[in-house]
Design goal:
213 residues, alpha+beta, Protein Transport Mog1p, Chain A, 2 domains, seven-stranded antiparallel beta sheet, 11 strands, globular
């Protein structure tokens, strides 16, 4: 099973897609397949909306959103991918789970997958945008590294290991590096979460229990 299958489940069903809609200026609809609907974002990245007619592959009973961090990190395992962030969100007035994962590209750079899972008891929707790093890679990290090192906020040992306040993927830097893939991923997914709608029949379905903090 591939990494993204593990992240987003299997057996999506086209019929559920009739219960979700996205109309957003600047997002160009690319078509509907058996398992998803696809758009191109204003930044030229790929957005997919997936519908899964099976119970969400998420544990229930967690008290805090941070409990899901350990769950996702274990699922990613030694795949090479790493979890950038995870937090509670709301999409179409439904509690949801927001995640950003980064995956190394070959030969260099990173791809970022930002997703929001909208879970119900018996099915779920996943909004997912995938953004690849183009051109010269590592610019954000290099510039921030020089700045924070000069400010004494991080230290680098002889083996190149960084300690201190080092989080170049932080949302705090997105406005400074708007073309970086993690910035594009957050920007596009934020727009989608604010625009996606669900039909009344979907909203009336039994809920999935997510933490409240």
């Amino acid at each position: 099973m591939g990494l993204f299958d593990r992240l987003f489940g299997k057996n999506p069903q086209g019929s559920l897609l009739d219960g979700i809609e996205l109309i957003l200026e600047g997002f160009e609809f690319q078509g509907r397949e058996e398992s998803k609907m696809v758009w191109e974002t204003p930044d030229g990245d790929c957005l997919g909306i997936y519908a899964f007619s099976i119970p969400p592959d998420l544990p229930q009973g967690f008290r805090r959103s941070s409990d899901y961090r350990a769950f996702y990190e274990k699922m990613l395992g030694d795949s090479g991918a790493s979890l950038v962030e995870i937090k509670l969100a709301e999409a179409a007035s439904v509690p949801a789970l927001w995640t950003v994962v980064k995956v190394p590209q070959n030969p260099s750079g990173m791809s970022y997958v930002a997703s929001v899972t909208i879970p119900f008891r018996d099915f779920s929707f996943v909004l997912k945008v995938q953004c690849a790093e183009h051109g010269m890679t590592g610019v954000r990290e290099a510039l921030l590294g020089d700045r924070l090192l000069s400010a004494g906020m991080i230290e680098v040992d002889d083996d190149g290991n960084i300690t201190g306040n080092w989080n170049p993927d932080s949302e705090d830097f997105d406005k400074e590096f708007p073309e970086h893939p993690v910035s594009r991923a957050r920007r596009s997914l934020t727009a989608v979460v604010g625009a996606v709608t669900l039909t009344p029949a979907i909203l009336a379905a039994p809920a999935f229990s997510l933490p409240t903090e």
